[in-house]
Amino acid sequence: MSQVLHEIEKKIITSLKNNEKQTPENLEKSTNLSPDQIRRGIEWLKLKGLAIVTESQAISLSLGKNGLESFHKGLPERRLLDLLKNESKKLQDLQKDLGNVFGPAMGLARKNNWVDASEEKIFLKNYPSELPGEKTLKQIGENKISKNEIDADDLSFILKRPDFIIENVIKTKEISLTDIAKSIEITAGLSGEINVESKVPDVFVARTHPLKDTIDEIREIFVTLGFTEIIGSMTQPSFWNFDALFTPQDHPARELQDTFYLDGISAKKIGTSEQIKKISESHKKGWRYNWDINEARKMVLRTHTTCVTIKHLAENKPDEARVFSLGRVFRNEKVSYKHLVEFNQIEGIVVGKNATLRDLMGIQQEFYRRIGITKIKFWPTFFPYTEPSLQTMVYNDRLEKWVELFGMGIFRPEVTKPLGITKPVLAWGGGIERIAMLKYGLDDVREFYNNNLSWLRSTTKCQ
């Protein structure tokens, strides 16, 4: 019979032909293969119907702490009977002689009618030549004995007693060949083997998209830096998308030309009455206009993922936190080589009593270093909800110029105080497509969505 066999399989079959039944450990010695090679070879042969694996287990018994003590000194009830063999004794004397085993010894002795008691003394009624369990203790001693060698009835009595008997379960495997395997002729050389270096046709198997690879890499970096991912809805009330972040209701970003509103849909519940009251007051005081709750109720496709983390902060009010949110966001912008109406964003926060802007810069530098970007600098900038604010700039070697990536800063008191957050909050966020463009050397963000198969096949990873 012709079979294509791996060299590992050949060695196992050859060894089993010489010695019909072997354990994996014996096969290791007879084939000079590693334990992992033996394990894999056996599984391969099983799948091909060439090997039989027989599993069995044996139970051996040894004495526990109390069992060893009873083996050397005698069972507690035997020691009690020995003390009464020549004369009756007072209860307190027996307690003193036997210590903490007096109780169980006396209980068994009375139950089996071996002793009796008067008002003052305990005296012997019967003295058995062999007590239940003594035979088992003598057989085992300080050795390990197969359970099959012990009298089952005598053993059952002693098994009920704590820490007298230890059961040791030993599982074994035996490997043997099927009749088909026995008929296989193992030949030397390359006959029947696969040449792994031979040319094969190109097969385009399932692959992950480069942008998905970048998203997964970013997620892994922040998780390994000690951050926890939080998830939020892609549709948000304007209250959390804008108002909670101290963005005034007349800000240009809230106009139809910049934001996608869900036509005719308003949120019934946008926050607690306390949150609404304090955010309203913050806007009135900071921006000096009459805040309109109906504007805050309007539903939008989120323009950033910061709305997810600010809501998380408001609901949990942590003293310390390291969280990030990663997902799609939407901007009503003209599509160009660097802008899309729908893209992916990573955004995160750190909450801590002693958190500083320098800590935030350090986190960003470490993130960029891990993703492979080393030329970084920070420029002062302005964002409505952070102060101070910085823009991360990274150097594009191919374009030979600095390009902007993440925005970052410390949440303003007008953002945190109305929500009951008392500790400093470091925040940052930015588009993932821009990082992916740097990573894959693209000048046009639209390339990620053009389904250029030749580029995808040359760039993506096989799964």
From TrEMBL:
It is found in: Cytoplasm. Keywords: Aminoacyl-tRNA synthetase, ATP-binding, Cytoplasm, Ligase, Magnesium, Metal-binding, Nucleotide-binding, Protein biosynthesis. InterPro entries: aa-tRNA-synth_II, aa-tRNA-synth_II/BPL/LPL, Phe-tRNA-synth_IIc_asu, Phenylalanyl-tRNA_Synthase. The keyword GTP-binding does not apply. PROSITE patterns: AA_TRNA_LIGASE_II (PS50862). Its EC number is 6.1.1.20. One of its GO terms (biological process) is phenylalanyl-tRNA aminoacylation. SUPFAM superfamilies: Class II aaRS and biotin synthetases. The keyword Cytoplasm applies. Signal peptide: none annotated. Residues 322-438 form the Aminoacyl-transfer RNA synthetases class-II family profile domain. Belongs to the class-II aminoacyl-tRNA synthetase family. Phe-tRNA synthetase alpha subunit type 2 subfamily. This is phenylalanine--tRNA ligase. It comes from Nitrosarchaeum koreense MY1. The lineage of its organism: Archaea, Nitrososphaerota, Nitrososphaeria, Nitrosopumilales, Nitrosopumilaceae.
